Amino acid sequence: MDDGKVRPYFTTRSLIPENQETPIHFLRGSIFDKEYWFLRNHFQYPELNVASENLLVTGAVSNPFIIKLEEIKALPHKKITLPLICSGNQRAKFRPKVFGEQWEEGAVSQGVWTGVPLKELLNYAKPDENTVEVVFTGKDRGVKPNKDEVVSFERSLPLKKALHPDTLVAFEYNGQSIPYKHGYPLRLIVPDWYGMASVKWLKTITVVTRPFEGPFQTDDYVYYPRPDTDEGKTPVTTVRVNSIIQQPLDHSIIDEGTHVIVGLAWSGEGQIAEVEISFDQGNTWEPVTLEEKSASYAWTEWSYVWKTPGKGSYTIQTRARDSQGNIQPQSEFWNRKGYGYNAIFNIEVKVE
User: Fold this and answer.
1) Distance of alpha carbon 322 from alpha carbon 242, whole angstroms
2) How far apart are alpha carbons 341 and 105 in whole angstroms?
3) What gap in Å lies between CA 119 and CA 147, rounded to an integer?
């Protein structure tokens, strides 16, 4: 029954596979309910059965093993609050345009993940001394557009990142089992990297002694800086420093008076040290107010009280700087698959 409440809704980017953009401009806070977690899929959802709750750890290890979901839950675990950000977030803004899901700003969400540090499972498996990477295979599979065969979604991490104490094999989101559409029963969680690294419906962990070359590692999720050659390609990994304005909306009409401009900022390379705002095409910048973060990996909420100077049209821009000195650039780093957009954020509003 309709309770009369007004709610924001997803923006649909595709249905098969399902890709839905969260209404990021209408949500504040550090934790998003599963109802508003964005959906990014490469294939249709996998079919699960009782065996789906088993995780296989294998490859170049002395002690391969299968572990059950309940056994993983019984191991020492931790909670981490962090955003997962699709590397294609804001792809629609690249000029010239690129192919792919035309995400605006909503391919990002944040919540609390509970899981076992991956390094504990790897320590038990005893990787070979020549290990270079760890490969993660999800249960989702299908025919990739540029392939003639059925493939699984698989990604790898360098051993150092796999052994990071906050890289988790997660089994809960916001204190409950991970929702089916977001990777139940187990999902890899990789802080500071774009969301493609956090493999859903985790089935197998494979230790390897040579670089992994699966299609989602060497074809997709690669920066190709030139339109017609692979020259200069580099892998997509760490989240780039970024900020967005949540309210007011782009090209909205607002009344004269005082308005609170609000937004978010994040980075995979350090804490957000500063967010600035400009009303004169970037000639001058003013600091905004940063709210205290809920956790070390969490995004930073910010606000700015703006007294409109009069009727007319205004461009509002924001840029973030992190603790490592990274700052949003004036222009985006164009790449032909449209990853990692982080140019200075700007909107236009009309005051009447």
Assistant:
1) 9
2) 10
3) 33
Q: What is the pLDDT of residue 2?
A: 65
Name which of 187, 189, 304 is nearest 246 in CA terms.
Answer: 304
Which amino acid makes up residue 126? Answer: K
On the question of a cis peptide bond just before residue 165, with omega within 30 degrees of 0, the verdict is no
Distance (Å, whole) CA 335 – CA 226: 7
Distance CA 223, CA 91 (A): 13
User: What is the tens place of the pLDDT at every residue in 123-136?
Assistant: 999 999 999 999 99
CA distances from 108 to 26, 180, 246 (A): 13, 18, 13
Annotated domain spans of the chain: 11-235, 242-351
CATH topology for the 11-235 domain: Sulfite Oxidase; Chain A, domain 2 (3.90.420)
pLDDT tens per residue, range 211-230: 999 999 999 999 999 999 99
Residue 335 to residue 63: CA distance in whole angstroms: 42
DSSP character for 327?
B
- Domain 242-351: CATH class, spelled out: mainly beta
Distance of CA 65 to the CA centre of its chain: 30
List beta partners, residue 159: none
Dist CA 194 CA 190 (whole Å): 8
Mean pLDDT score, 276-294: 95
CA distance linking residue 152 with residue 109, whole number of Å: 24
Q: Is 40 left (phi over 0), alpha (psi -120 to 50) or beta?
A: beta
Q: Which tens digit of pLDDT belongs to each residue from 84-110?
A: 999 999 999 999 999 999 999 999 999
In contact, 333 and 305? CB cutoff 8 Å:
no
Q: In what order do the strands lie in the sheet with 133-143?
A: 65-68, 54-59, 202-208, 133-143, 150-158
